Amino acid sequence: MNLIENFKKKWLEKSKDYTNNPEKIKTLLGKVTKLFSKDGLKDVLEDLKYIVSYVKDIANGNYKDYDVKNFALAIAVIIYVVSPLDVIPDFLPAGFIDDASLIAWAVKLLHTELEKYKQWKSSK
Asked: Given pLDDT bands bounded at 50, 70 and 90, which one contains residue 87?
């Protein structure tokens, strides 16, 4: 099973436990921000930060014009990134390659949604 198939099957399912639980999302966001300094994520760091900001604003009730499926996808990406036991475990030397690839893939899928969010954010 490749990374995307694994993600769709396992990680998107896990996101359902978070979508209506702001406390779980808050805990998850606390974990992901600790990874912002990891070299393996530097090429996708800005994208990851925007995904985190998007999820945070939705969870806090600040941003309401979002697609629920895209929200679940964004949460699933964050769950995957914080999980130490993904396709390539993070403790291995190249452990963040799969995370970075998944973030880049998700940003392509979320492009329209994130652009709409960025416009909303810049108008605040």
From this structure: low
CB atoms within 10 A of CB 1: 10
CB atoms within 10 A of CB 23: 9
Alpha helices of the chain — where are they, by DSSP H?
3-6, 12-15, 22-33, 45-59, 68-82, 97-109, 111-122
Q: Tens of pLDDT along 29-65? A: 999 999 898 888 999 999 999 999 999 999 999 999 9
| Amino acid in the structure at residue 2 | N
pTM for the complete prediction?
0.86
Query: Nearest Cα to 88, choosing from 78, 77, 101?
Result: 101
- Cα separation, 111 vs 79, whole angstroms: 19
